[in-house]
Design brief:
About 40% of the residues lie in helices and about 20% in strands. With about 270 residues, the chain is an alpha/beta fold. The strands form two sheets. The protein has a six-stranded mixed β-sheet, sandwiched between helices. The chain has a six-stranded parallel β-sheet with strand order 9-8-7-10-11-12, with helices on both faces. It binds NADP nicotinamide-adenine-dinucleotide phosphate. The site of NADP nicotinamide-adenine-dinucleotide phosphate has 25 residues, from helix 6 and helix 9.
């Protein structure tokens, strides 16, 4: 059996196990490959992950709050993981190899290359690092807004782009929400209130924009809903999740990921 896992805390909500199992089924390899969710506290991460490698696991996805630690425990890291400064994909092939598919996954989810676009990234946390890295690499002009402005400045100093405090929603070709605003604390939609935590205004969205909301849940986020209703091309967090998962799948199995089966699984789980 080739064993895989997603490691995080909390992890019970993760759709990655359903997504990867659907991929194994679609390719007829479900009897050889498995994928499970493993909850780990930060203080256990290094020791327990190294034990997985010793126990014959092939690899793992790593999510909040372990992405930086995943890079630190790796014996080797790809340029992508090193440049982003975090890893979401580990492979255990004799040594622990760290990779990052969050940035490539975002790019794969976009309708076209963001090269030449004026882009606004909301947030300066872990997800934002991969987004800023990916957009800059493709040649977008990146502006970073964050609630805590010092963190936006620190991220721009480290990776590039410009930190901004005042923005005009309509002026961007691409807007990516990489904050956790919109994560549902309750099942009910918040009726548009989430936008108040962000600098964008609903009436600023228009039909020549691409708007990505990394946050996903059972309902569309207020941001995605406001942008979609004004004609923007909206990419939701599940679509980005599918593409980062597909890139990880390719790294571990060497097989072409069955995107449609993976997409169906995350939307139904
Ligand atoms: P993180 O490192 O904890 O960063 C959280 C970010 O959200 C920070 O920039 C923080 O600003 C901001 N924020 C939190 N509460 C806010 C509020 N009330 N108002 C304004 N800003 C607020 O988290 P992360 O790992 O970057 O993840 C961010 C989101 O992306 C999560 O919802 C995660 O599930 C999602 N995500 C999705 C995918 C996908 O594949 N779809 C992949 C990765 C992450 P401060 O610096 O001011 O605290």
């Amino acid at each position: 059996m080739f064993r895989l896992a997603v490691i995080g805390q909390p992890i019970a909500h993760s759709r990655s196990p359903a997504m990867h199992r659907a991929a194994f089924e679609a390719l007829g390899i479900v009897d050889e490959w498995s994928y499970e969710a493993i909850e780990m506290a930060p203080e256990q991460f290094a020791e327990r992950t190294e034990a997985l490698a010793d126990a014959g696991y092939v690899g793992a996805n790593v999510t909040v709050p372990h992405k930086r630690a995943a890079l630190e425990i790796a014996e080797r890291a790809t340029d992508v993981a090193r440049e982003i400064g975090a890893a979401n994909t580990l492979s255990f092939a004799g040594q622990i190899v760290a990779d990052n598919t969050d940035g490539p996954g975002l790019l794969a989810a976009l309708p076209k290359s963001p090269g030449g676009m004026r882009a606004l990234v909301l947030g300066a946390g872990g997800a934002s690092r991969a987004v800023v890295w990916a957009l800059l690499r493709e040649g977008a002009a990146v502006e970073i807004w964050n609630r805590t402005s010092t963190r936006a400045r620190a991220l721009a100093d480290e990776l590039g782009g410009a930190a901004v405090e005042e923005i005009s929603t309509s002026e961007y070709d691409l807007i990516v929400n990489a904050t956790s605003v919109g994560l549902q604390a309750s099942p009910a939609p918040s009726g548009g209130d989430d936008l108040k935590a962000l600098p964008v205004v609903a009436d600023g969205f228009h039909d020549r924009q691409v708007v990505v909301d990394l946050v996903y849940g059972s309902d569309e986020t207020d941001l995605a809903s406001a942008a979609r209703s004004r004609g923007a091309n909206v990419i939701d967090g599940l679509e980005v999740l599918v593409h980062q998962g597909a890139e990880s799948f390719r790294i571990w199995t060497g097989l072409a990921p069955p995107l449609e089966a993976m997409r169906r699984a995350v939307r139904e789980s």
